[in-house]
Amino acid sequence: MHQYGKLINQLDSGDDETFWFGAVDHKSINILETLLSVRKLPDDFVRFLVTCGGGGVIDAEISGIESNDPTIEHGGTILFDTLYCRSEYDLPSGIIVIYFKNDEVCWCIDCSDREYGSVVSYNLFNKRIEQKISARFFDFFKEYVELRTKIVI
After folding, report:
1. What is the C-alpha separation between 114 and 126, in angstroms, rounded?
2. pLDDT tens digits, one per residue of 101-136
3. Backbone angles phi, psi at 148, to 5 degrees
4. What is the value of pTM for the model shown?
5. What backbone torsions phi and psi does residue 111 show, to the nearest 5 degrees?
6. Which residues contact 50 (CB under 8 A, 6 or more apart)?
7. What is the Cα–Cα distance from 77 to 128, expressed in whole angstroms?
8. In what order do the strands lie in the sheet with 105-110?
9. Which residues pair with 129 in a beta bridge?
10. Cα 49 to the chain's mean position, in Å?
11. What is the CA radius of gyration of the chain?
12. What's the chain look like in SS3?
């Protein structure tokens, strides 16, 4: 079974309610990259989007592409969350938002040359990258699932 499929099944079988945006095709990912002016999303994040499109535990969802349409702009989509944070909080280009909560928490994937592929915390008030959370998205998602299911995978 695909690594993300196994993790998603583990999360779905936990106590928390989950939802998923639905699988995404590569054409939609390419459009999103263009809309956000990033050269390329990391392969492990692309595999996540192709598998489930985004989502997760309700109220702690990972931003995604809704209904395989990268142009949909509302809270919870990568496009909206990223453009909003760029506009309101000076999020640097080359960084995309994968988790945004209550104008307080902003976790991103660095698609620039700085730390390509790493998941970072962006401080919305100081308007700077605060820390590296994980070297790559897959490790971040694995920990996301483990924390919510209390099962080490």
Report:
1. 19
2. 988 999 999 999 888 999 999 999 999 999 999 999
3. -90, -20
4. 0.93
5. -105, 10
6. 23, 24, 25, 26, 29
7. 22
8. 95-101, 105-110, 119-123, 128-134
9. 122
10. 9
11. 14
12. CCHHHHHHHHHHCCCCCEEECCCCCHHHHHHHHHHHCCCCCCHHHHHHHHHHCCEEECCCCECECHHHCCCCCCCCEHHHHHHHHHHHHCCCCCEEEEEEECCCEEEEEECCCCCCCCEEEEECCCCEEEEEEECCHHHHHHHHHHHHHCCCC
Whose structure tokens read 């099962």?
151
CB–CB of 66/83 below 8 Å? no
Which residue is listed with tokens 């639905």? 22
Could you identify the residue written with the tokens 């970072």?
120
In this structure, what token pair is assigned to residue 82?
């990223």
